[in-house]
Request: fold
Amino acid sequence: MRIFLDTASIDEIRQAVKLGVISGVTTNPSLVAKEKRADMKAVIQEIASIIDGPISAEVLSLETDALIEEAREVSSWSPNVVVKVPVSVSGLEAISVLSREGIRTNLTLCFSLNQALLGTIAGATYVSPFVGRLDDIGHDGMQLVAEIVELFENYNITTTQVIAASIRHPLHVITAAKVGAHIATIPYNVLTLMIKHPLTDIGISHFAEDWQRIQKS
Ligand code: G3P
Reply:
């Protein structure tokens, strides 16, 4: 399973890239707004200058023609851009047009197996089931990820990859990997939690103490 960083924070992306474990970035309008930046193009192009991998940038238009036009513009910002399109009638129509033009898309705000099925048939490059938001309302978000993975395997669908999104904690990442998600897109704090283990910290300090002791003896 590959790991993307789910953030629009340049600092977080710079830090995570140094670890060598991040192969892409996903953003959404809320994440860009959280950084107090109103120019999405500038943010996406800055991210593209840091990481050489897919960068999801979301479109906001609702009507089909406007959505397609906005998606073409967004995709021109960098060869690495993947256009994030929310599930809707116009969204699916846009994805089918964009995929025929060779523009990569990420079907976002995906909350059902049917939405994922329609997304892959329309030509989406990625589908993003939102695990945490389903968990929030008492559903099993990771069950949806497992079902989409199984559906794609049943039909040998290799043109669309599953991004487990709305990841909230390290256990989500483990489960996403176990059920076969192609990618988990994770917030920076989850990445740091994945690194930490109390036994590792205890082990490091014991090794250091033992070494110091023998130096002084
Ligand atoms: O990738 C989608 C993600 O940004 C949504 O996460 O935590 O707002 O549900 P969250």
